[in-house]
Amino acid sequence: MLLAGCGPTASDGSSGASTTGGSTVETKPADGSTDQEITYLTSTSPNGVTVQSPDESCLNTVDASQFGMDVGSEDNTDAFNLVLAYCAAFPNTKMVIPKGVYRFNSAEMLKLKEAKNVLIDAQGSEFIFRDIGLFRLSDCDTVEIRNLVIDWDWDYYRPANLVKVVDVGWNYVDFEFTEVDSIQASDVVFETMNQFDPDTLTPGCAGGKEYFLTQLTTSKVENVSANVLRAYDMPILGSLNAGEYYLVRNYSCKSHAFDTSSSQNITYRNVTIYGSPGMGFVFGMGSGHIKLDSCVIGLRPGEENKRRLSTQADGVHCLNTSGHIWIENCDFSFMGDDGTNIHDNVGLLTSSVDSKTVVCQSNLLCEVGHTIEFLENSYAPTGVTAVITGKTAAGSDSIRLTFDKELPDSIQEGCILKNTKYDSSYYYIANNYYHENRARGILAQASQGLITGNKFFRTQGAAILVITDIAQGLWSEGTGVDTLTVSGNTFERCNVGNWTALIDIHTSIFGQSSEYPVMKNLLFENNTFIDFPSELFNIASADQVTIRGNSIQNPTNLLNGQPSRGGIRLQTSSNITISGNTYHASAHMQKDCMEPEVLAKVEGLKVSDNTWKE
Prior knowledge:
By secondary structure, the chain is mainly β. Helix content is 2%, strand content 48%. The protein has a 35-stranded mixed beta sheet that branches. The longest helix has 13 residues, at 77-89. Residues 1-22 have low confidence and may be disordered.
């Protein structure tokens, strides 16, 4: 049937297209039918990111309670999976969840698969989880989830604890678990320890320390009192001091709140995550045209003294997508890792089998039929592409790839393989608040980005990291960045751990920097930088970088403030312009920081009209 009242009508009575409130509205046939039309709303960001969402006025409203969802149930997994199955079977659905607190206690995922033109409105409902069965969206198109709160049941199981070192002996350390009245040794796994500021109880501090896995082994853990545990024979005993605070995590990442794969035009609007056993929002497997609007990741109000962690890992992680990523009006804090990471994976060629077959790292996501571009070890292009005709495993961390043609002799061990199917370019990150999280604010590892109007506060590491990074046995992230604008943002008290420069731009290929300009056409304009301990910029492997019209203020004496505080460090780069920036005079920042430090091989450097304002 024709959905009455849906979409615009042209003067001749036919369906047409129009622009309303900045959104393009267009009608399309549904499921190949000629008598039914679906209406979509398409929004476009200032830098060309597009996302399509359902037109609510054209959807058929369904009440989720008829599928058995019940605020009195201990586990709504089966009932909500029926809800999602209905949404997948019936396009053009607006599923309304009666407002309430719904509990979930299953490892079974909440699966939405092959849904089209669906809006799920939770009306402010809360979903509380005790197991890893959170949201999984796959092969969907034009889906919006709105007005939903996600949380972990911390009373059931605490995935992390803020501890205070109260005593260190010759073979033991005593930890007070500050957020609880009692704790049992069996409830704690020392997988990671991240030092917190003792005054603000936020991630990172001057001289802050972190420990992982084998550094945290113990021969025995026992109670000294109700909320104090004694751990024996930790390898890190000699570096711990009474009075220090650490976040102890039982695990780093298990299951993400929203895991979206092979999907297009996905919107999360007014979705809040107070707790997740993994990351917050994950997008991969070619997903694209993604929007996060007015979403929150952070501590549950009123429980700040009971927990100091929101997501176990990244807030937003986009990998191997088809790009068009829009993040606006969001508030992200207290994540166990980076605020937002946008990148595509690559693979390092480790050996050649024959003229058509190579072995590479399994980090490369690829399948038969995909086209691979070969890069030199420096990321410089080789001009060689080939189509995968065969793929098999080659050990636990490698894959064997056969191609449709012979590869030239220049393609050898050390070359980098890039899958052209995935391209996370085009992202718009605007008017968000990134604050008080472990690690970095934003990892911008893809092209055509606009980061504007955001506030960054107390990130543990760099506020913005622009990088390609290949680390043996860990990750292979980034394909280079061409065109990135960072404008009109405020950075206050960021990089508290002084990990790197406040804005860090470089390559790391097994720890080595590339001499090829992997990062190109970067603009940092009209930003305000306040109270950071480190250099303002580190720039390497870059070309055509402009830093202009920014305000640099360091009025506060910081314990870990460096002599080079506020400076710009350059190496292996070209065509760098630094102009029209204002440095506000301070006893805690030297005037010569206005002159960039050139370490090696910098050509085309232009420095002009920068001001030291008394």
